[in-house]
Amino acid sequence: YWIKNYSQDVLKALYRYLDLYIKYAKDSVSLFPETRDVLAFVQDKKIPQLIASNKDQYIIDAEIARFNLGSYFEKVVGGQGVEVSKPSKDFADMVLGKVWPKRILMIGDGESDMKFARTMGAYGLFVRPGQEEVAFSYDKRVQNLGEVFDFLKENL
């Protein structure tokens, strides 16, 4: 769909995606059952949790408010358009500030997330069901949030 309708016009495709996302998000976006358990587990370990998204800030803020997740995150940074977004170093600086932590775990479900992990020197935990090959690198692949939780319990 995206290639057929937008081919090389990335900006037009991005804005169409955001329009659709805003229109349908309330009806189609839900939390995975393990979400609060995972967030609480990491919070109990006193590990700062951040959100870095290419979605506009107001979209991310609305989702966090809708699901009442604000208390889990020290910082939430939405994309600032195509110029400053994942996986750029400028976006990493916005998210992490001037002093980056020595150890970072990036949990994500897409290419920009795993490339962002590389930009930050982070461990990239790629969440994607199935076994299809992808054309980008990551450190570990898991199938779902339950496996993310297992990984965190074993490694934190």
> What overall geometry do the principal axes of the alpha carbons give?
globular
| CA-CA gap between termini | 40 Å
The number of helical elements comes to: 7
Assembly type of the shown chains?
single chain
What is the β-strand count? 5
Helix content: 40-55%
Q: What does the main sheet amount to?
A: 3 strands, parallel
Cross-sheet strand order for the largest sheet: 3-4-5
Briefly note the structural class of the backbone: alpha/beta
Describe this structure in a few short sentences.
The chain has helices at residues 2-6, 10-28, 35-44, 57-67, 89-96, 111-120, 145-155; strands at residues 50-56, 75-79, 105-108, 123-127, 140-142. By secondary structure, it is α/β, with parallel strands linked by helices.
Keywords:
single chain; 156 residues; alpha/beta; three-stranded parallel β-sheet; two-stranded parallel sheet; 7 helices; 5 strands; globular
